[in-house]
Design a protein that fits this description.
alpha/beta; Dihydrodipicolinate Reductase, domain 2; 8 helices; 11 strands; disordered N terminus
Length: 259
């Protein structure tokens, strides 16, 4: 999208991967979004569901938004390469090899991948890094809760929070911290450098993430609660506005939204 198009308030052309709850909510929100002058902010030119072959002939978009699942990655990459669209990806559960594919894609297109598109989660991640820096020697545990339909665990957001802890501890020269995913049996005493990561599943919970720091005779817990998926949709569409027309590269959420 050129600067001239932005000045003329030409709608950003969107393609959406997935027709589930997130895909449907992204579409309805995008179609209702307006610029300051009342003109449409987005035009949804394609939405790709279970039949991934549709991506081979779907109209070109400025941005592809993908909150589907890991199985769609080949179709996502093929569409982005064919159309030159920027990618806003919120799909979680990728393997290391699949993340490498996304990074390779960034040589040809602007790619943003994040496990969470909430501004509140961004603040929680910053607060987690600050607490890890200030609370030297405290034990760290992460607990995430989601609805009973979520297929991957731990959540992408929990991994972001874990990364914030591990990176901060390394920067502070405190050694290599590592995750322990749940506990069972006679494990012996807790290693001071382990970070417990626990996943709860049930009901219709949109998402709750808590990072707890346990010291001697005191505890600090940081919690973010999402009451609906709308916050993630709003963040993804805000990111789509900023990603349209960007140069190829692999971008982070903070870089795009706050840079």
């Amino acid at each position: 999208m050129t600067n001239e198009m932005v000045a003329q308030k030409v709608p950003i052309r969107l393609a959406i991967m997935g027709e589930g709850r997130m895909g449907s909510l992204i579409r309805s929100t995008a179609e209702a979004a307006r610029n300051e002058d009342g003109s449409p902010a987005f035009e949804v030119v394609a939405q790709i569901g279970f039949d991934l072959s549709v991506a081979d002939s779907a109209p070109a978009a400025d941005v592809l938004i993908d909150f589907s699942n890991v199985a769609t990655l080949p179709a996502v990459c093929a569409y982005v390469r064919r159309c030159g669209a920027a990618l806003v990806s919120g799909t979680t559960g990728y393997s290391d090899d699949q993340m490498a594919e996304l990074r390779e894609l960034a040589a040809a297109a602007a790619v943003l991948h994040s496990g969470n598109y909430s501004l509140g989660i961004a603040a929680l991640r910053h607060a987690t890094a600050l607490a890890a820096r200030e609370l030297a020697g405290f034990d760290v545990e992460i607990v995430e809760t989601h609805h009973n339909q979520k297929v991957d665990a731990p959540s992408g957001t929990a991994k972001l929070l874990l990364d914030a802890v591990v990176k901060t501890e390394a920067e502070e020269g405190r050694g290599e911290y590592y995750p322990v995913y749940g506990r069972e049996g006679m494990l012996g005493k807790r290693d001071p450098r382990e970070v417990g990561v626990h996943a709860l599943r049930g009901g219709t919970v949109a998402g709750v993430h808590t990072v707890s720091f346990f010291g001697t005779d005191e505890e600090v817990s940081l919690t973010h609660r999402a009451t609906s998926r709308q916050i993630f949709v709003n963040g993804a569409l805000a990111a789509a506005r900023k990603m349209a027309g960007r140069e190829p590269g692999f971008y982070g959420f903070d870089e795009v939204m706050f840079g």
